[in-house]
Amino acid sequence: MLNARRANELIRRFADLRVLVAGDLMLDEFVWGNVARISPEAPVPVVEVTGESFYAGGAANVARNLREFTPGVSVAGLTGADPAGERLTGLLRDAGIDSTCILEDPNRRTIVKTRVVARHQQVVRIDRESRLKPDERQARDLLARLEDALSRCDALLLSDYAKGFLTPEVAQGLCRLAKGKIITVDPSPKNPLSWQGVTAVKPNLKEARAASGLGDEAEPEAAGTELLRRWGTEMVLLTMGEQGMLLFHQGEAVYHTPTRAREVFDVSGAGDTAIAVFTLGLAAGASPAEAAELANHASGVAVGKLGTATVNPRELAESVREIHGE
Q1: What is the DSSP string of 4-22?
Q2: Cα–Cα distances in Å, from 310 out to 50, 65, 120, 290, 305?
Q3: What pLDDT is attached to residue 149?
Q4: Interior angle at CA 57, CA 51 and CA 60, nearest 5
Q5: Which residues are the active-site residues?
Q6: In what order do the strands lie in the sheet with 111-118?
Q7: Are the C-beta atoms of 56 and 63 separated by less than 8 Å?
Q8: How far apart, in whole angstroms, are the C-alpha atoms of residue 252 and residue 255?
C-alpha cells in the first residue's frame, strides 16, 4: 500500500526521467474579471476585465505538469505561424520544456481556448481552432525528428484531443519508435485509434462509455473491461471525477481508488495532471496501483486550484501523507 515514504521515494525518481509528449497543442487564455450588472442589450452578465493569463494547453499542458517533477520533458506537435503559436512556444521555452519537435505550419491556425472567469466562476468559453491533419511531408519530418528524441526517453505520452495531429500513421509511427518503453495515452472517442501494444490508456468515464460502444448508462466496470479487451492494452485507467479512478490491468482484479479531492474549484486540466503523474509513476517503477494512487492524489490537488493548474512534488507528497500516513 502506498504511504508517504514510498511516495517520496517514487517522486525523487521522477526527476531523473525523460518523457516526450506528443499531441494536440493549444494555448489557454484566461480572462479574469468582476460582474456587477446585467447587460441592457441581452440577459447576460457584463464582465469588467481585471486581467489576463496565458498557459500552454492541451498536450502542452500535460508537458507543464510533467515539468513540475522533471527537467527532462519534450513536446511534439503542430502550431500555426501566428502570434498564438509564438506565445505558446515561448511559454514552453520559458518553462524549460524542449520544443524542438514542434513544427510550425503557415496553413494552420493555433488552437486557442479562452475562458472568461468572474467571481471564481467560468462565465463562457470561446474556442478558436482548426482540425488540420499533418500532411505526408509533415508526418515524415516529425517522425524523423522524434526518432532520436525517443531513443533518449523513458516514456512516450500521447495526448489526443481529436484536433487532427494524431492520425493513424503518426500514432502508429510514434508507438513503433517507442517500442519497449512506457507508452501511455489520453484518448479521444472522436478519434478512434487502435492502441494495441501500448502500456496504458486513460479515458474519463464519458469517453470510456463512448469508446466502448456500451451506451451512456454503461457501468464503469463494464466499460473499462470492454476497453481493455478492445484496445488490447496492458492497462486502462478510468477516471470518474468524484467517484475516483478504476484501474483495469490484464490478469488482475479491478482496483478502485476513491477521490482524493478536498475542494473542487476548477476541473480544467485535471485529466492532464492525472496522465502525467500516472506515466511518471510507471516509468519510475511504481506498481500500477501505486501509479494510480499518485495520479489520483495529483488530480485531487489540481481541482482545488483555479485554471489549468499544475501540481508540484511537495503538494503531491503532502496529499499522500495526509491520507495514507508516513
Answers
A1: HHHHHHHHHHHTT-EEEEE
A2: 23, 5, 18, 20, 9
A3: 92
A4: 135
A5: 272
A6: 45-58, 25-38, 111-118, 121-128
A7: yes
A8: 8
What is the distance between the alpha carbons of residues 318 and 241, in angstroms, rounded to a whole number?
Answer: 21
Q: Which of 126, 139, 142 is nearest to 84 (CA)?
A: 126
User: Quick one: which of 158, 254, 164, 146 has its CA closest to 198?
Assistant: 158
pTM: 0.92
C-alpha cell at 321: 501523507
Mean pLDDT of the chain: 92
Distances (CA, A) of 244 to 2, 12, 220: 16, 25, 11
Rounded CA gap, 292 and 300, in Å? Answer: 12
* Residue partners of 315: CB distance under 8 A and separation at least 6: 301
List the Cα angle 75/79/83 in 5-degree steps.
120
Maximal CA-CA distance, the chain:
62
Residue 48 C-beta-side C-alpha neighbours within 13 Å: 5
End-to-end CA distance of the chain: 11
Q: Torsions phi, psi of 94, nearest 5?
A: -65, -30
**Is 103 exposed, middle or buried, given 0-12, 13-18 or 19+ CB atoms closer than 10 A?**
middle
Burial 68-101, CB ≥16 within 10 A → b, else e? bbbebbbbbbbbbebebbebbbebbeebebbbeb
- For the stretch 205-244, pLDDT in tens is 999 999 999 999 999 999 999 999 999 999 999 999 888 9
Lowest mean pLDDT among 24-33, 125-134, 221-230: 125-134
Give CA–CA dist 80/130, Å, rounded: 10
Would you give the DSSP letter of residue 43?
Answer: S
- Average pLDDT of span 258-268: 60
Q: Which residues contact 113 (CB under 8 A, 6 or more apart)?
A: 26, 27, 28, 29, 57, 125, 126, 127, 128, 129
Q: Which grid cell sits at 300?
A: 485531487
Angle, alpha carbons 321-323-326 (nearest 5°): 35
